[in-house]
Request: fold
Amino acid sequence: MSFELIIAETRGRVGLITLNRPKALNALNDQVMDEIGAALDGFEADDNIGAIVITGSEKAFAAGADIGAMASFSYMDAYKGDYISRNWERVKTCRKPIIAAVAGFALGGGCELAMMCDIIIAADSAKFGQPEVKLGILPGAGGTQRLPRAVGKAKAMDLCLTARFMDATEAEKAGLVSRVVPADTLLDEALAAAETIAGFSLPVVMMIKESVNRAFESSLNEGLLFERRVFHSAFALNDQKEGMAAFVEKRKANFRHD
Ligand code: CO8
Reply:
């Protein structure tokens, strides 16, 4: 897959998307989001891909939505053009797991893009923030909704209202990121985690992603019921037979992803 503002490649069973607009610190415009969407379409259609990593550069995962592109927007441009919903939701609808590997700035839409992923692994250089308030706007791609779910109301209010940045250590303590690693090992760590996930049964991995996400959309009892039904359905998989046989026979499971 060949793109202009991102690089999409495969590493084993992992699809890797690298944002590639270095001069604008990977600011996210329509073209970037369309290209991410097209890359995700390709990876989702590819049976040989079991997990995806999205990363940026050493200096910036993404410094936000492209401010220049938005500066002259009218209300009608935003509303009729279905700004954000049109091409940002594709990340959310991806059924395969996505890891955001974040170094440097993840601000505004950049932080929101990372939060749309399933796991955030941060370099020790990472800085997260929702500084839209400084621009006379508010977060528009989930910052006021996903951030409080990740870090709680107090910290989400603090970040969104003061525009201050949160470093990687604080982000890990607050629950936004799952691990912090030295910057020079970030991509290796993220790819290794993705490769581990991609080695498990793909349908089971997809069921786990769907079930964990359901926890944020339902009451506890509804979520537990959903989990139980999906759990029962796992016994229809060849991979369940293989996984348990492998345990009993003390060997490594060889999942066929069905
Ligand atoms: N949009 C466009 N260009 C950007 C952006 C951006 N968000 N961020 C940085 N750039 C550009 C700069 O304009 C500069 O370009 P040039 O060299 O041509 O002047 C280049 O990247 C390098 O930036 P700096 O010189 O500013 O680099 P510094 O190291 O001095 O500062 C910062 C780095 C702190 C990251 C600084 O660039 C900054 O504050 N950037 C803006 C951060 C921000 O406000 N982000 C939020 C944007 S609004 C948003 O995301 C809304 C989300 C709504 C939903 C998304 C829908 C699409």
The chain has twelve helices and ten strands. The pocket of octanoyl-coenzyme A is lined by residues 24-25, 27-28, 63-68, 84, 105, 107-109, 112, 131-132, 135, 139-141 (CB under 6 Å).
